[in-house]
Amino acid sequence: MSQQELKRDLANRHVQLIAIGGTIGTGLFLGSGKAIQLAGPSVIFAYLIVGIALFFMMRALGELLLSKEGYESFTDIAEDYLGPRAAFITGWTYWFCWIMTAMADVIAVGVYVQYWFDIPQWVPAIVCLLLLLGLNLLTVKLFGELEFWFALIKVITILALIVIGVVLLVIGYQTDAGTVSINNLWDHGGLFPNGMTGFLLSFQMVVFAFVGVELVGVAAAETSDPRKNIPSAINKIPLRILFFYVGALIVLLCINPWTQLNATESPFVKTFSLIGIPLAAGIINFVVLTSAASACNSGLFSTSRILFTLSKSEQAPRSFKKLTKNSVPGNALWVSAVVVSVGALLSKLLPEQAFGIVTTISAICFIWVWSVILISHIKYRKTRSDLHKKSAFKAPFAPFINYVVLALFGIILIVLLVAEATRPALLLTPIWFILLFFLYAFKKPMLK
């Protein structure tokens, strides 16, 4: 069979919006409520710390991706620098991360549609999944278009919040919660009202909020000009973090004292309701719906590309590397969609705390993937100094900053172990890695 290659049909605007979509999601629109409840205003620093750490991780990924022609994702990088076992475990773990995230988000779609229509939540969930599957099977350009418009809705919503919030700050607007003022950041127990404990406990949801930031790396094989588009997208991450996370949260907390917010509702819905925008709840429900659909769309895209890459490197069944006439990995897309749909149908039988367990496991697995990228970059610097010297996109402060970020990840894992709410998920996660080690030893029969 002749070698089939993915099509480079993603333009610069697609890559830029995929990068934005990867840094704005359900974790911000919904999860920030829980994070604020735990940490108070200090959650701003948590988002800033994790965001900066992930920028340095992305710079390492960018240098690695551009160091060699033919890299299609970070699993190729892991195989080159850490060996086939690491590539196998990382690739399947990344697939697992996005499958779990997509399961949660496709169910969320069903819940959000129930806001308007009294129908079983599995109906819109499956309809959304089939629609996204059909569009992804057509061309990669359609994936880019979907993410472009999904991300645009998120951007407009946050931009509107920030602009309105600044105006309200200037005029000292009165809401039911009091005066809109920057003093609300510290007038209700200070910046760290729950101490360092609350601050550290917020990191689980903060990490989950950034899930998908590395998606631009998965899209590398299908961008028309990776040497231009990937550095451009990565270098804009700090500004996006400052604007979409730090800026939005500062405005939220100036309008709403943190004591007025809770984990069970979106702080965005609460804010738009307070400032008197008609149909605020419906507007934000629509935004959150598109955000969940966007996450599911990203999940289908990334899981299918990971299966394709694993198959090409003989780490997954050969059928997954078969492309359709539109240069899309059809078999891989179908398998991922089926697994997500089974999870969606079964997840309604789980108790409400299951979502928290799923997001925690997802965050832990993403920490593994991000750590592999950083460790691969350290190995690259040591063993391929010739490539590093020629690089036009060198990662700053490496390898020192790699070790700093890895240490931060270690601290976050310790916090997850200590915290009662996240400890079960952390203790369950090693089962997945043990399973992968076992499968790797017997993977040859699986590949036939």
Automatic annotation (TrEMBL):
Keyword Electron transport: no
Chain ranges of the Amino acid permease/ SLC12A domain: 14-443
Compartments reported by the entry: Cell membrane
Record Pfam families: AA_permease (PF00324)
Coiled coil: none
TM region positions: 12-32, 38-58, 92-116, 122-143, 155-175, 195-220, 241-259, 279-308, 328-347, 353-376, 397-419, 425-442
InterPro entries according to UniProt: AA-permease/SLC12A_dom
PANTHER family: D-SERINE_D-ALANINE_GLYCINE TRANSPORTER, GABA PERMEASE
Organism for this UniProt entry: Fictibacillus halophilus
Full protein name: D-serine/D-alanine/glycine transporter
Keywords associated with the record: Amino-acid transport, Cell membrane, Membrane, Transmembrane, Transmembrane helix, Transport
Predominant location: membrane
Membrane topology: Multi-pass membrane protein
